[in-house]
Amino acid sequence: MLELNKYKAVTFDCYGTLINWEEGIITSIKPILQAHNVNLAEEQILENFAEFESELEQGEYITYREVLRGVVQKFGDRFKFHPTNDELNSLANSLQYWQPFPDTVAALKLLKQRYKLVIISNVDNDLFAFSAKHLQVEFDEIITAEQVKSYKPSLNNFRQAIERIGLPQEQILHIAASIYHDIVPAKSLGISTVWVNRRTGQQGSGASLPATAQADLEVPDLQTLLGTGYVS
């Protein structure tokens, strides 16, 4: 049993955990591929995205808007087509329309009554501002890649989050859908973790690179976490 009462802050990954980014990615990328006569299964689109995004987030920091533009270019490079400028920008431009999972908003509103809520996200400030409107709660802290100039799974993102939250890591619970981006680095710093396995029953690791780590708790969604006795 995960005793949520011992935590004072709950930190969240945003995209993939709160916002349905895989649907957003497919909705944006698939028409580009089809326009250039490239037919990939949705799982292949997500796996290529995971590879390209990770490559672009290595090394010297670039904005997430630039990362997403680079992802589209890498699809073109791999599958032998030349994206138009509009196509290069379309993935980043689509992010403002990506929607929360059905259980997200209710869970956030419930947790907000008891805990400090924090976002730790691989995104630009202006892009997260669009998503914040969909999430409908006021977060106590928002830590973006743009602010800390690195991308998860870098420990820098989590260390700066701990510093800004102002609590020992033992009082912080991190909730995320990506083992690669979140569970591995958070656990290495002694932060308790909940893996929200949004891909329960599906093959592969989707839009995140495959990784292995044991979260303190695995649930298929936030409704399960809050509604079936896992939390006391």
From TrEMBL:
<dbReference type="InterPro" id="IPR051540">
    <property type="entry name" value="S-2-haloacid_dehalogenase"/>
</dbReference>
<protein>
    <submittedName>
        <fullName>Haloacid dehalogenase type II</fullName>
    </submittedName>
</protein>
<dbReference type="InterPro" id="IPR006439">
    <property type="entry name" value="HAD-SF_hydro_IA"/>
</dbReference>
<dbReference type="Pfam" id="PF00702">
    <property type="entry name" value="Hydrolase"/>
</dbReference>
<dbReference type="InterPro" id="IPR036412">
    <property type="entry name" value="HAD-like_sf"/>
</dbReference>
<keyword id="KW-0378">Hydrolase</keyword>
<dbReference type="InterPro" id="IPR023214">
    <property type="entry name" value="HAD_sf"/>
</dbReference>
<dbReference type="InterPro" id="IPR006328">
    <property type="entry name" value="2-HAD"/>
</dbReference>
